[in-house]
Structure formats: C-alpha cells, structure tokens
Amino acid sequence: MKTSSFSAPWCTSVKSITTLISIVLGYALFDFFAHHFDFSSRALLMGAGIPLGLLGLALGCMVTGYSLDSDGIVIRRLLWSRRIRRAEILSLTSPAAVTRKGTLGLFGIWGFCGTSGLAYSGALGLHFVAASAYANRIVITRHRGWPVVISPENREGFAQAFVDAAV
Fold first, then answer.
1. 25 with 17: CB under 8 angstroms?
2. In sequence order, what are the beta bridge partners of 136?
C-alpha cells in the first residue's frame, strides 16, 4: 500500500498570532515566577498552569500534515491522527468560496498554532477545519457528516495522489 504525505504549512497570520500569544504567555510565566515566591497551589495553578495548559492544548491540536493511501486520508496532529475512510468521501473540491472571509470559528484554535475546529460559513454550513493555512484549501465532502477543510502544501498534488491511491 503506497502512502503519500503532505505537510501542513503555516500561513503568515498563524505564525504572527502564535508568536504574539507565545510572547504574552511567556511574559505571564516570567511575571508569575518573578513576583510569587510563596508557591501556593492556587497561585501556581493560575500563574503557570493556565498558560502552560493553553500552550499544550494548542500544540496538541496543531495539524502537522496529511497522508493518503488506498484506505483514505489521515489528518495528522501532534498528539493524534484522524482517518477519513475513502468509502466516506463523496468528493474533494477546492472552491473559491472556502476562504477566511465569511467563516466563523465556533470552537477550536483559530490562529494560535493553526486553524482547527468547528466552523460555520454560508458556503459550507457547519464544517470541521483541520488546517494551518488559508491557502491551498480543499473541502472533503462526506456521504454522512459535516465537510472537512484541510490545507496541504500542494493542493493539486494532493488531489492527484488521492485519485492515484484509489487504483
């Protein structure tokens, strides 16, 4: 079984937001440790636990890449992966309607370590996003369930590898 892999590159806005939030979280940790010498459990939870927890959650949800094989598509994240079976997939499309404009992120990480989670747009309705960039978006329409939006480094190469893996 031949497997093709594609990375999930970060767009400029994701890099910028991640850098900014990392600086803010780093400052919060520095401030906590510089001003709190009595490490009470509540202060430790607030000062160090919350920023580190947010960072861990965002990194765990970060999309690292996509793999294709004859069984379907695997969306790889830092801590887990999700397979969408070929039998579930109705189509792969890259419509111009799938842009940042008009998409409302409802739950997930939106700019910090990627753009992933549940979203709503007029073009797709409710859908999942498992991407790290706004460019190269592909919509995976399924027989059942909400569409899934991904952003492999090479949209055309990904679509061709999907077709090639079926034979």
1. no
2. none
Q: Look up the pTM and report it.
A: 0.75
Q: How far apart are CA 6 and CA 76, in angstroms?
A: 10
What token pair was written down for 66? 């996509």
Contact 140, 83 (CB under 8 A): no
How do strand 63-69 and strand 4-7 relate by DSSP bridges? Answer: antiparallel
In whole angstroms, give the CA distance from residue 71 to residue 84: 8
Distance (Å, rounded) from C-alpha 81 to C-alpha 13?
A: 24
Tokens of 56: 């861990």
pLDDT tier for residue 147 given thresholds of 50, 70 and 90: very high
Kindly state the average pLDDT of the residues 103-119.
Answer: 73
Q: Which residues of 82-111 are buried (b: 16+ CB within 10 A; e: fewer)?
A: eebeeebbeebeeeeebeeeebebeebbbb
